[in-house]
Write a structure and sequence with these properties.
alpha/beta
Length: 248
């Protein structure tokens, strides 16, 4: 039943909200922090999915959420409900997502209208230009959510991080807020379409300043963020992360 309700909510919320986000973008109703209409569309879309799925989102460390300063939120990723949970609670944000999602009918152009930045992993030049655009937006006060593991994992143990999100944070001079999400895998695991009600915990950890880092020292920043997230997973949920922090 929950799976059907979630599918219905996904369909109707997308059909209703995507045109609003696109129209707001076409009319220029966008400020340097993403546009109030677009922000409302993304948050309402995510909350609708959570409610229909029977998902309760509990936020820990809300004081670490950006108060208007551009921030990079780096989150673990094991389920689509990681994204929905984060999107339902953060203020003033957008996402960096893989380019393939842009091709999903209605959702793709709605997300683009809402300000989601799509990244082509195969095209380095395009990815570099996209990161430059995002860095400027962060400098203007918009926060960005990234998943440095790249794709969804099979378990909660952290996998190696990719460098792109941390190069972005250094370029923008923005703090990195490590984010740990737990409970989303029980709602919908990777490879499954079945949705189960549950509680998803979103932990916003203490921000890591990037002002003392440059490109040559990006791996040090990655290691610090990875370690804080791995420690939080072990402390709160007994999850151990055994892989190397940094992708070789």
């Amino acid at each position: 039943m929950r799976t059907l309700l979630a599918a219905a909510a996904l369909w109707f919320a997308t059909i209703f909200l995507a045109p609003i986000a696109v129209m707001a973008s076409l009319l220029g109703l966008r400020d340097h922090r993403g546009g109030a209409v677009q922000q409302w569309c993304m948050r309402t879309w995510a909350r609708s999915l959570c409610v229909a799925s029977g998902v309760t989102v509990v936020v820990h460390g809300r004081e670490h959420a950006s108060g208007g300063t551009g921030t990079v939120y780096a989150s673990n990723h094991v389920s689509w409900y990681d994204i929905f949970a984060i999107a339902s609670v953060l203020p003033r944000y957008t996402f960096v997502a893989k380019a393939e999602l842009r091709n999903i009918p209605i959702f793709g152009w709605g997300a683009e209208g809402a300000g989601v930045v799509f990244l082509s992993r195969e095209n380095r030049k395009s990815a570099f230009e996209a990161y430059q655009t995002v860095a400027r937006k962060i400098g203007d006060g918009l926060s960005v959510v990234v998943c440095p593991e790249g794709t969804r994992g099979e378990s909660y143990g952290l996998r190696p991080f990719k460098k792109g999100p941390f190069v972005l944070a250094i370029a923008a001079g923005a703090p990195v807020v490590p984010v740990v999400v737990h409970g989303a895998r029980e709602v919908m695991a990777k490879g499954s379409f079945r949705v189960r009600p549950g509680t998803v915990h979103v932990h916003l950890l203490e921000p890591v300043a990037t002002t003392s880092y440059d490109y040559e020292h990006r791996h040090e920043l990655m290691h610090i963020v990875w370690t804080r997230m791995a420690d939080a997973l072990e402390e709160h949920y007994g999850v151990q992360s055994v892989e190397a922090p940094v992708e070789v």
